[in-house]
From TrEMBL:
This is Uncharacterized protein. The chain crosses the membrane at residues 88-109, 129-149, 190-213, 225-245. Residues 267-278 have a biased composition (Pro residues). It comes from the Bacteria. Residues 265-287 are annotated as: Disordered. The lineage of its organism: Bacteria, Pseudomonadati, Planctomycetota, Planctomycetia, Gemmatales. Keywords: Membrane, Transmembrane, Transmembrane helix.
Length: 287
């Protein structure tokens, strides 16, 4: 006795997509609620700031894991995973920077209006919140630099062209493969931003090493001149590095459209499952 399993109605009317859309809209309130609960339980505003900043990279994090799990090309899925993960960390770091600035402005604006008895408590909470946001920013920028290197190395090694767009988030929600939504590619912005952060760290260190090597030859450099030299090298070196790598990235690693990254082939059909061997009793009953 055989019977064909009928697809569920949700497979046709898109209720799964609607449910995913509702979950995407609920992510922001849930994370804000989680941040408030963490603050009430732990009384650590810095930890609450971290969870609130995570929201702004949450879509990129989810898309990164979706690409890694869905892409039939394992290497390409891994490369795009690092690309979207880098983008998410970058957004978290930017939000940490914005939150630190906002907390500072609000603290200055409300400092004079606070009652004398609550001034110290409010000042301490604002300070902890600003510290948490600042640490989130610094950690995010550092991690973003490392992830950028990883993304460039794996992409160049396996000749992957990256496509980074908010349209890919809609592809994830709608279960489209290959991803085809989105009009603007932001991959070059994220990669160049990460390269700029790396340059800000490497150029001064390289300059200090070069000065130490050249010191026996040209003599000691005045201490008052060193800060100006570092600023000059950073202002000249970082734009130079960006200009040199911009064309290289666009030529070898940036996709002009989603199909340049993921192609146009749909997901392969799942392998049909073999029917289990007939039981001897079933054969006897059918004969």
């Amino acid at each position: 006795m055989t019977s064909d399993a009928k697809p569920m109605e949700s497979d046709f009317n898109g209720s799964t997509t609607t449910q995913s859309s509702w979950m995407a809209w609920l992510t922001m309130p849930l994370l804000l609620l989680l941040g408030w609960v963490i603050y009430e339980v732990t009384m650590l505003p810095g930890l609450a700031a971290l969870f609130m900043c995570l929201k702004f990279g949450w879509a990129d994090f989810r898309t990164a894991f979706w690409l890694r799990q869905t892409d039939p090309n394992v290497i390409r899925g891994r490369a795009c995973f690092w690309m979207y993960l880098t983008s998410g960390v970058w957004k978290v770091a930017i939000m940490g920077f914005a939150m630190a600035i906002l907390v500072g402005i609000l603290y200055i604006a409300h400092q004079e209006n606070a009652p004398p008895g609550q001034l110290f408590k409010r000042e301490q909470s604002a300070e902890q919140l600003a510290i948490g946001a600042t640490l989130t920013m610094l950690a995010g920028f550092g991690i973003c630099s490392l992830f950028t290197l990883r993304t460039i190395l794996i992409g160049r090694r396996h000749q992957v062209r990256y496509w980074l767009s908010s349209g890919t988030h809609r592809d994830r929600v709608q279960r489209n493969w290959p991803p085809r939504l989105g009009q603007h590619n932001d991959a070059s912005k994220i990669l160049l931003s990460g390269i700029s952060l790396i340059s800000l760290l490497i150029l001064p260190i390289s300059t200090a090493i070069l000065i130490a090597i050249m010191d026996p030859i040209i003599g000691p450099i005045p201490v008052d001149f060193l800060p100006l030299l570092y600023v000059f090298i950073v202002l000249l070196g970082v734009p130079t590095v960006i200009l040199l790598l911009m064309d290289w990235l666009r030529k070898w690693m940036i996709a002009a459209r989603p199909a340049d990254c993921w192609g146009t082939d749909p997901l392969p059909d799942p392998k049909p499952t073999k029917a289990p061997p007939a039981h001897p009793d079933d054969v006897w009953m059918q004969s």
